[in-house]
Write a structure and sequence with these properties.
- Its EC number is 2.6.1.-.
- This protein has a seven-stranded mixed beta sheet with strand order 2-8-7-6-5-3-4, with helices on both faces.
- It is of the alpha/beta class.
- The termini are far apart.
- It has two domains: 141 residues, Alpha-Beta Complex (Aspartate Aminotransferase, domain 1), CATH 3.90.1150.10; 221 residues, Aspartate Aminotransferase, domain 2, CATH 3.40.640.10.
- The chain contains 13 helices and twelve strands.
Protein backbone atom coordinates (compact mmCIF):
# COMPACT_ATOMS: atom_id res chain seq x y z
CA UNK A 1 0.00 0.00 0.00
CA UNK A 2 1.33 3.48 -0.83
CA UNK A 3 2.30 5.87 1.93
CA UNK A 4 1.45 9.56 1.90
CA UNK A 5 3.44 11.93 -0.27
CA UNK A 6 4.07 14.05 2.83
CA UNK A 7 5.80 11.28 4.78
CA UNK A 8 7.78 9.89 1.84
CA UNK A 9 9.05 13.30 0.75
CA UNK A 10 10.17 14.72 4.10
CA UNK A 11 13.75 14.84 2.81
CA UNK A 12 12.80 16.32 -0.54
CA UNK A 13 14.00 13.24 -2.38
CA UNK A 14 17.61 13.68 -1.17
CA UNK A 15 19.74 12.82 1.82
CA UNK A 16 18.63 13.72 5.33
CA UNK A 17 22.12 15.10 6.01
CA UNK A 18 23.08 12.38 8.49
CA UNK A 19 25.03 10.07 6.15
CA UNK A 20 28.46 10.64 7.69
CA UNK A 21 27.10 10.41 11.23
CA UNK A 22 25.49 7.08 10.35
CA UNK A 23 28.74 5.85 8.79
CA UNK A 24 30.67 6.75 11.96
CA UNK A 25 28.13 4.97 14.14
CA UNK A 26 28.36 1.87 11.90
CA UNK A 27 32.15 1.91 12.35
CA UNK A 28 31.73 2.09 16.11
CA UNK A 29 29.32 -0.86 15.98
CA UNK A 30 32.03 -2.86 14.21
CA UNK A 31 34.44 -2.14 17.07
CA UNK A 32 36.41 0.64 15.36
CA UNK A 33 37.50 3.43 17.72
CA UNK A 34 36.02 6.67 16.33
CA UNK A 35 36.36 10.14 17.82
CA UNK A 36 32.88 11.60 17.45
CA UNK A 37 32.59 15.36 16.95
CA UNK A 38 29.25 15.17 15.19
CA UNK A 39 26.13 15.88 17.22
CA UNK A 40 25.26 18.35 19.96
CA UNK A 41 25.19 15.85 22.81
CA UNK A 42 26.90 16.99 26.01
CA UNK A 43 29.72 14.82 27.32
CA UNK A 44 28.33 15.46 30.80
CA UNK A 45 25.03 13.89 31.77
CA UNK A 46 21.96 15.54 33.25
CA UNK A 47 22.86 16.86 36.71
CA UNK A 48 22.02 14.30 39.42
CA UNK A 49 20.00 16.88 41.34
CA UNK A 50 17.64 17.21 38.36
CA UNK A 51 17.28 13.45 38.09
CA UNK A 52 16.57 13.29 41.81
CA UNK A 53 13.80 15.88 41.38
CA UNK A 54 12.39 13.83 38.51
CA UNK A 55 12.51 10.68 40.65
CA UNK A 56 10.81 12.39 43.61
CA UNK A 57 8.04 13.62 41.35
CA UNK A 58 7.49 10.25 39.72
CA UNK A 59 7.52 8.40 43.03
CA UNK A 60 5.19 11.06 44.42
CA UNK A 61 2.59 10.13 41.82
CA UNK A 62 2.98 12.73 39.06
CA UNK A 63 2.86 9.99 36.42
CA UNK A 64 -0.64 10.43 35.05
CA UNK A 65 -1.90 12.80 32.40
CA UNK A 66 -0.45 16.25 32.97
CA UNK A 67 -2.07 19.52 31.95
CA UNK A 68 -1.79 19.73 28.16
CA UNK A 69 -0.54 23.34 28.04
CA UNK A 70 1.96 22.44 30.74
CA UNK A 71 2.03 22.49 34.52
CA UNK A 72 1.00 26.01 35.48
CA UNK A 73 3.96 26.64 37.79
CA UNK A 74 6.40 25.66 35.05
CA UNK A 75 4.65 27.93 32.53
CA UNK A 76 4.77 30.79 35.04
CA UNK A 77 8.47 30.18 35.61
CA UNK A 78 9.23 30.12 31.88
CA UNK A 79 7.18 33.30 31.41
CA UNK A 80 9.02 35.09 34.22
CA UNK A 81 12.38 33.93 32.85
CA UNK A 82 11.58 35.19 29.36
CA UNK A 83 10.24 38.51 30.63
CA UNK A 84 13.32 39.07 32.80
CA UNK A 85 15.70 38.33 29.92
CA UNK A 86 13.88 40.25 27.17
CA UNK A 87 11.84 42.95 28.89
CA UNK A 88 8.74 41.84 27.00
CA UNK A 89 5.57 41.39 29.06
CA UNK A 90 5.05 37.63 29.21
CA UNK A 91 2.41 35.71 31.16
CA UNK A 92 1.33 32.13 31.57
CA UNK A 93 -1.05 32.39 28.60
CA UNK A 94 1.93 33.22 26.37
CA UNK A 95 3.58 29.83 27.07
CA UNK A 96 2.94 26.22 26.07
CA UNK A 97 5.22 23.37 27.17
CA UNK A 98 6.27 21.02 24.35
CA UNK A 99 8.08 17.66 24.09
CA UNK A 100 11.37 19.33 23.24
CA UNK A 101 12.41 22.07 20.85
CA UNK A 102 11.91 19.90 17.77
CA UNK A 103 8.24 19.35 18.60
CA UNK A 104 8.00 23.09 19.23
CA UNK A 105 9.34 23.85 15.74
CA UNK A 106 6.79 21.51 14.18
CA UNK A 107 3.90 22.94 16.19
CA UNK A 108 4.88 26.55 15.54
CA UNK A 109 4.95 26.02 11.78
CA UNK A 110 1.68 24.09 11.93
CA UNK A 111 0.20 27.17 13.61
CA UNK A 112 1.27 29.69 10.96
CA UNK A 113 1.58 27.79 7.65
CA UNK A 114 -1.24 26.41 5.53
CA UNK A 115 -0.76 23.60 3.02
CA UNK A 116 1.42 24.87 0.17
CA UNK A 117 2.59 28.05 1.93
CA UNK A 118 6.22 29.01 1.39
CA UNK A 119 8.19 28.95 4.64
CA UNK A 120 11.57 30.72 4.70
CA UNK A 121 14.60 29.52 6.63
CA UNK A 122 18.24 30.58 6.74
CA UNK A 123 20.90 28.42 5.05
CA UNK A 124 23.13 27.12 6.77
CA UNK A 125 20.45 25.45 8.86
CA UNK A 126 19.96 22.70 11.41
CA UNK A 127 19.51 19.53 9.40
CA UNK A 128 15.87 18.90 10.35
CA UNK A 129 14.51 22.31 9.34
CA UNK A 130 13.44 21.55 5.74
CA UNK A 131 11.86 18.24 6.76
CA UNK A 132 9.97 19.92 9.58
CA UNK A 133 8.52 22.44 7.15
CA UNK A 134 7.51 19.71 4.69
CA UNK A 135 5.95 17.76 7.55
CA UNK A 136 3.37 20.52 8.09
CA UNK A 137 2.70 20.81 4.35
CA UNK A 138 4.74 23.97 3.83
CA UNK A 139 7.18 24.49 0.96
CA UNK A 140 10.74 25.15 2.26
CA UNK A 141 12.44 28.20 0.74
CA UNK A 142 16.09 28.73 1.74
CA UNK A 143 17.75 32.14 2.11
CA UNK A 144 21.52 31.89 2.00
CA UNK A 145 23.67 33.56 4.65
CA UNK A 146 27.04 33.70 2.92
CA UNK A 147 30.47 32.89 4.32
CA UNK A 148 31.86 36.24 3.15
CA UNK A 149 29.34 37.95 5.45
CA UNK A 150 30.36 35.73 8.40
CA UNK A 151 27.05 33.89 7.89
CA UNK A 152 25.00 36.88 9.04
CA UNK A 153 21.83 36.86 6.88
CA UNK A 154 21.26 40.07 4.94
CA UNK A 155 17.86 41.74 5.06
CA UNK A 156 18.01 42.32 1.31
CA UNK A 157 18.35 38.58 0.67
CA UNK A 158 15.45 37.76 2.99
CA UNK A 159 13.38 40.48 1.33
CA UNK A 160 14.09 39.08 -2.14
CA UNK A 161 12.76 35.66 -1.07
CA UNK A 162 9.82 36.84 1.03
CA UNK A 163 7.13 37.48 -1.58
CA UNK A 164 4.25 35.10 -0.97
CA UNK A 165 5.83 33.48 2.09
CA UNK A 166 4.02 32.91 5.38
CA UNK A 167 6.90 32.62 7.82
CA UNK A 168 10.62 32.95 8.45
CA UNK A 169 12.64 30.66 10.74
CA UNK A 170 15.84 32.01 12.33
CA UNK A 171 18.25 30.48 14.84
CA UNK A 172 20.65 32.49 16.99
CA UNK A 173 23.04 31.50 18.47
CA UNK A 174 23.24 29.48 15.30
CA UNK A 175 23.60 25.79 14.69
CA UNK A 176 25.70 24.93 12.68
CA UNK A 177 27.83 28.08 12.34
CA UNK A 178 28.20 29.23 15.96
CA UNK A 179 27.34 32.77 14.82
CA UNK A 180 25.27 35.09 17.02
CA UNK A 181 23.06 37.36 14.93
CA UNK A 182 23.86 41.00 15.58
CA UNK A 183 21.31 43.69 16.36
CA UNK A 184 21.61 45.15 12.84
CA UNK A 185 20.91 41.71 11.37
CA UNK A 186 17.86 41.17 13.55
CA UNK A 187 16.49 44.67 12.99
CA UNK A 188 16.80 44.09 9.25
CA UNK A 189 14.98 40.77 9.54
CA UNK A 190 12.26 42.36 11.68
CA UNK A 191 11.74 45.04 9.06
CA UNK A 192 11.29 42.43 6.33
CA UNK A 193 8.82 40.47 8.47
CA UNK A 194 6.72 43.57 9.00
CA UNK A 195 6.92 44.66 5.37
CA UNK A 196 5.83 41.24 4.08
CA UNK A 197 3.51 40.34 6.99
CA UNK A 198 5.56 37.28 7.93
CA UNK A 199 5.45 35.28 11.11
CA UNK A 200 8.90 34.99 12.65
CA UNK A 201 9.80 31.72 14.34
CA UNK A 202 12.90 32.18 16.48
CA UNK A 203 14.79 29.07 17.58
CA UNK A 204 16.63 30.18 20.72
CA UNK A 205 17.66 26.86 22.25
CA UNK A 206 21.32 28.00 22.52
CA UNK A 207 20.55 31.30 24.30
CA UNK A 208 22.63 30.31 27.36
CA UNK A 209 25.71 29.61 25.24
CA UNK A 210 26.94 33.02 24.09
CA UNK A 211 30.71 33.59 24.05
CA UNK A 212 30.87 36.94 22.22
CA UNK A 213 28.28 39.64 21.76
CA UNK A 214 24.75 39.56 23.17
CA UNK A 215 21.81 37.31 22.45
CA UNK A 216 18.83 39.40 21.31
CA UNK A 217 15.43 37.75 21.06
CA UNK A 218 13.65 39.26 18.02
CA UNK A 219 10.39 39.10 19.98
CA UNK A 220 11.80 42.05 21.96
CA UNK A 221 12.20 44.27 18.91
CA UNK A 222 9.60 46.99 18.20
CA UNK A 223 6.46 45.64 16.59
CA UNK A 224 7.55 41.99 16.75
CA UNK A 225 5.90 40.51 19.87
CA UNK A 226 2.60 39.89 18.05
CA UNK A 227 4.20 38.12 15.10
CA UNK A 228 6.94 36.07 16.78
CA UNK A 229 6.93 32.53 18.18
CA UNK A 230 10.01 31.69 20.25
CA UNK A 231 11.22 28.11 20.64
CA UNK A 232 13.00 27.28 23.91
CA UNK A 233 14.33 24.03 25.31
CA UNK A 234 15.99 22.47 28.34
CA UNK A 235 18.14 20.23 26.13
CA UNK A 236 21.17 22.44 25.57
CA UNK A 237 20.94 24.79 28.54
CA UNK A 238 20.57 22.04 31.15
CA UNK A 239 21.95 18.92 29.42
CA UNK A 240 18.46 17.40 29.37
CA UNK A 241 18.49 16.24 25.75
CA UNK A 242 16.78 12.91 26.45
CA UNK A 243 14.08 14.41 28.67
CA UNK A 244 12.40 16.03 25.66
CA UNK A 245 11.03 19.21 27.17
CA UNK A 246 10.82 22.70 25.71
CA UNK A 247 8.32 25.48 25.10
CA UNK A 248 6.84 27.97 22.69
CA UNK A 249 6.35 31.60 23.72
CA UNK A 250 4.06 33.75 21.61
CA UNK A 251 0.80 35.72 21.36
CA UNK A 252 -2.05 34.41 23.49
CA UNK A 253 -4.31 33.54 20.55
CA UNK A 254 -1.58 31.50 18.89
CA UNK A 255 -0.78 29.67 22.14
CA UNK A 256 -4.48 28.86 22.67
CA UNK A 257 -4.65 27.21 19.24
CA UNK A 258 -1.37 25.40 19.90
CA UNK A 259 -3.00 23.91 23.01
CA UNK A 260 -5.70 22.52 20.70
CA UNK A 261 -2.97 21.03 18.47
CA UNK A 262 -1.24 19.44 21.47
CA UNK A 263 -4.55 17.99 22.66
CA UNK A 264 -4.88 16.21 19.33
CA UNK A 265 -1.23 15.13 18.97
CA UNK A 266 1.19 14.83 21.89
CA UNK A 267 -1.30 15.35 24.73
CA UNK A 268 1.32 17.17 26.71
CA UNK A 269 4.55 16.27 28.50
CA UNK A 270 4.86 13.85 31.46
CA UNK A 271 4.38 15.67 34.75
CA UNK A 272 7.50 14.29 36.44
CA UNK A 273 9.65 15.63 33.56
CA UNK A 274 8.00 19.03 33.88
CA UNK A 275 8.68 19.02 37.62
CA UNK A 276 12.34 18.24 36.93
CA UNK A 277 12.48 21.12 34.45
CA UNK A 278 10.91 23.43 37.02
CA UNK A 279 13.53 22.40 39.57
CA UNK A 280 16.32 22.97 37.05
CA UNK A 281 15.11 26.43 36.05
CA UNK A 282 14.83 27.42 39.70
CA UNK A 283 18.50 26.51 40.18
CA UNK A 284 19.20 29.63 38.12
CA UNK A 285 22.29 30.81 36.27
CA UNK A 286 24.90 28.80 38.24
CA UNK A 287 23.61 25.49 36.84
CA UNK A 288 23.33 26.89 33.32
CA UNK A 289 26.87 28.25 33.57
CA UNK A 290 28.21 24.85 34.66
CA UNK A 291 26.60 23.20 31.66
CA UNK A 292 27.96 25.86 29.29
CA UNK A 293 31.48 26.11 30.73
CA UNK A 294 33.06 23.12 28.91
CA UNK A 295 32.13 24.64 25.56
CA UNK A 296 33.46 28.06 26.52
CA UNK A 297 36.71 26.41 27.59
CA UNK A 298 37.05 24.26 24.47
CA UNK A 299 36.31 27.22 22.21
CA UNK A 300 39.30 29.03 23.73
CA UNK A 301 41.37 25.87 23.33
CA UNK A 302 40.35 25.62 19.67
CA UNK A 303 41.19 29.26 19.03
CA UNK A 304 44.73 28.69 20.28
CA UNK A 305 45.21 25.57 18.16
CA UNK A 306 43.80 27.17 15.02
CA UNK A 307 45.92 30.29 15.50
CA UNK A 308 49.01 28.13 15.03
CA UNK A 309 48.24 27.20 11.42
CA UNK A 310 47.01 28.89 8.24
CA UNK A 311 45.02 26.24 6.35
CA UNK A 312 41.80 25.89 8.33
CA UNK A 313 39.84 29.08 9.00
CA UNK A 314 37.49 29.43 11.96
CA UNK A 315 34.14 31.08 11.33
CA UNK A 316 33.52 33.55 14.20
CA UNK A 317 32.64 31.18 17.07
CA UNK A 318 30.34 33.46 19.05
CA UNK A 319 27.94 30.93 20.58
CA UNK A 320 26.60 27.36 20.78
CA UNK A 321 28.61 24.15 21.15
CA UNK A 322 30.03 24.01 17.63
CA UNK A 323 32.87 25.31 15.50
CA UNK A 324 32.38 25.88 11.77
CA UNK A 325 35.68 25.41 9.98
CA UNK A 326 36.43 26.60 6.45
CA UNK A 327 38.50 23.87 4.71
CA UNK A 328 38.26 25.20 1.15
CA UNK A 329 42.03 25.81 1.07
CA UNK A 330 42.43 22.03 0.78
CA UNK A 331 40.59 22.03 -2.55
CA UNK A 332 38.07 19.60 -1.08
CA UNK A 333 34.36 19.86 -0.43
CA UNK A 334 33.24 19.67 3.17
CA UNK A 335 31.76 16.27 2.43
CA UNK A 336 34.96 15.00 0.83
CA UNK A 337 37.09 16.35 3.67
CA UNK A 338 34.88 14.80 6.36
CA UNK A 339 34.78 11.42 4.59
CA UNK A 340 38.56 11.35 4.17
CA UNK A 341 39.19 12.44 7.77
CA UNK A 342 36.93 9.65 9.02
CA UNK A 343 38.51 7.05 6.76
CA UNK A 344 42.14 7.96 7.52
CA UNK A 345 42.05 9.14 11.13
CA UNK A 346 38.70 7.86 12.45
CA UNK A 347 37.62 11.38 13.41
CA UNK A 348 33.98 12.14 12.64
CA UNK A 349 32.89 15.71 11.89
CA UNK A 350 29.80 16.86 10.03
CA UNK A 351 30.17 18.10 6.43
CA UNK A 352 28.99 21.66 5.91
CA UNK A 353 26.86 20.41 3.03
CA UNK A 354 24.71 18.55 5.58
CA UNK A 355 23.47 21.98 6.64
CA UNK A 356 22.84 23.51 3.21
CA UNK A 357 24.57 24.87 0.14
CA UNK A 358 25.87 27.98 1.91
CA UNK A 359 28.16 25.87 4.11
CA UNK A 360 29.82 23.98 1.25
CA UNK A 361 33.56 23.65 1.79
CA UNK A 362 33.16 23.76 5.57
CA UNK A 363 32.87 21.19 8.34
CA UNK A 364 31.10 21.48 11.67
CA UNK A 365 32.93 20.30 14.78
CA UNK A 366 30.97 19.63 17.97
CA UNK A 367 32.94 20.52 21.11
CA UNK A 368 31.48 17.58 22.95
CA UNK A 369 34.37 15.42 24.15
CA UNK A 370 36.90 15.78 26.99
CA UNK A 371 39.40 18.63 26.57
CA UNK A 372 42.57 16.67 25.86
CA UNK A 373 40.88 14.36 23.38
CA UNK A 374 39.23 17.36 21.72
CA UNK A 375 42.54 19.20 21.40
CA UNK A 376 44.24 16.12 19.96
CA UNK A 377 41.46 15.55 17.42
CA UNK A 378 41.46 19.19 16.33
CA UNK A 379 45.25 19.22 15.94
CA UNK A 380 45.03 16.08 13.81
CA UNK A 381 42.31 17.71 11.70
CA UNK A 382 44.57 20.72 11.09
CA UNK A 383 47.55 18.52 10.20
CA UNK A 384 45.35 16.52 7.83
CA UNK A 385 44.12 19.74 6.20
CA UNK A 386 47.68 21.03 5.79
CA UNK A 387 48.75 17.76 4.16
CA UNK A 388 45.82 17.89 1.75
CA UNK A 389 46.57 21.50 0.97
CA UNK A 390 50.20 20.63 0.07
CA UNK A 391 48.98 17.84 -2.20
CA UNK A 392 46.45 20.17 -3.85
CA UNK A 393 49.19 22.77 -4.43
Amino acid sequence: MPLSHRITHLNGGGSDGWDLFNKARAMLARGIDVTELTIGEHDIRTDPSILEAMHRSAMGGHTGYASVPGVRQLRETVAARVQARTGVQTGVDNVIITPGGQAGLFAAHAAVCDEGDAALFIDPYYATYPGTLRAVGAVPRAVQARAENAFQPLAADVDAAATGAASLLVNSPNNPTGVVYGEDTLNGIAGVCQAHDLWLISDEVYETQVWEGTHVSPRALPGMADRTLVIGSMSKSHAMTGSRIGWIVGPREAIAHLVDLATNTTYGVPGYIQDAALFALNEGAPLEDRVAEPFRRRRALAQRILAGQNTVRLVPAQGAMYLMLDVRATGMSGEGFAEALLDTHHIAVMPGESFGAAAAGHVRVAMTIEDDAFAAALATLCDFAAERCRKAG
